[in-house]
Write a structure and sequence with these properties.
Length: 286
């Protein structure tokens, strides 16, 4: 296995919200990064997200402009997976779809040196099943970042059925080198984070649909009542209603009826009201 001290260049597959965030934190912590998506437009959108986020950090004095510019320079964009060939560690952050992820891991297995660890940012899918698309299941691990990646402190390390202990240690070490604190979960649906968070969001949506309170009072009640930064409806909008529905559906399939997605969640996704990213979810955005 390529160890922690040999990691200089990190490959990130997927330039969406999570992939671009992971690329950004890797670069601001001194790593060279290759960020890949399937189309040039998607890579460019990833860079736009990074530029906006770096500027927010600079404006808030969390990073100086020079360091932000240097980080930006360290990120190379590509649409060609072959450009990840000389990476020392790879994180995948593509769509939450098992077939898509297995295809990506099959391709990575052919592209990247055989001693390189392949991590997945999956939020609910089985690490073990993703790993079995490769010839190196012992080198596959879950590295589940939280959104927005540049400001959230935690990363969940998920241990697949065949993940090697040394790989688990490497995943903790690398996440810490990216400025994060970690916790560890077994490869059970939703791990710790989404197994608990998604039903919380889902129940918030049901409470809203059943007129328990206004959307504002549901969010305000949970913010003030449990000291969290966002209530369930505003958090659903922040994460993306499609992401919430996909995750809840996986939990429902794996763990049964207690995870049945709320009717209103399904309806809103059908309507294309996916939260902040489309300008409308449970709230409206500029
Ligand atoms: N990049 C850089 N900086 C950012 C940023 C980003 N993407 N988003 C927010 N910030 C900065 C802001 O600029 C601001 O900086 P300042 O204090 O210097 O002005 C600071 O963070 C606070 O932001 P805001 O003032 O805009 O608003 P908030 O105080 O509400 O913070 C938040 C925003 C950090 C998103 C906070 O509301 C929060 O922590 N919410 C909960 C998020 C959460 O739970 N995420 C996990 C979701 S679950 C998940 O990701 C798992 C997945 O599998 C589904």
């Amino acid at each position: 296995m390529r160890g922690f001290d040999s990691i200089d260049r990190i490959g990130v597959v997927g330039a969406g919200t999570m992939g671009s965030g992971i690329a950004q934190v890797a670069a601001t912590n001194g790593y060279d990064v290759v960020m890949r998506d399937v189309e040039t437009d998607l890579v460019e959108e990833g860079f736009e997200t990074i530029d906006e986020s770096l500027s927010r950090l600079v404006d808030g004095d969390a990073l100086d402009r020079e360091a932000a510019d240097a980080a930006r320079e360290r990120i190379e964009g590509t649409t060609d997976l072959a450009d990840l060939a000389d990476c020392d560690f790879v994180v995948e952050a593509v769509a939450e779809n098992m077939d898509v992820k297995r295809d990506v891991f099959g391709d990575l297995n052919e592209t990247v040196d055989e001693d390189v660890v392949l991590a997945t940012n999956t939020s609910t899918l089985s690490i073990t099943s993703i790993a079995s698309a490769t010839d190196r299941p012992e080198l596959v691990v879950g590295l589940h970042f939280m959104n927005p990646v540049p400001v959230m402190d935690g990363v969940e390390v998920v241990v697949g059925e065949r993940t090697d202990d040394e790989v688990v240690s490497l995943a903790h070490g690398l996440a810490e080198a990216l400025g994060k604190e970690t916790w560890e979960a077994d490869d059970k649906p939703g791990f710790v984070s989404n197994r608990i968070l998604m039903p919380w969001i889902n129940e918030g949506i049901r409470a809203y649909d059943e007129r328990v309170a206004t959307r504002e009072d549901i969010d305000r009640g949970m913010r003030l009542g449990t000291n969290v930064p966002m209530g369930p409806l505003e958090l659903a909008d922040h994460v993306g209603l499609d992401v919430c529905l996909d995750a809840t559906e996986t939990l429902h399939e794996e763990l049964g009826d207690r995870y049945t997605p709320a009717y209103l969640l399904r309806r809103k996704v059908e309507a294309g009201d996916l939260g902040k990213k489309t300008g409308r979810g449970f709230y409206e955005y500029e």
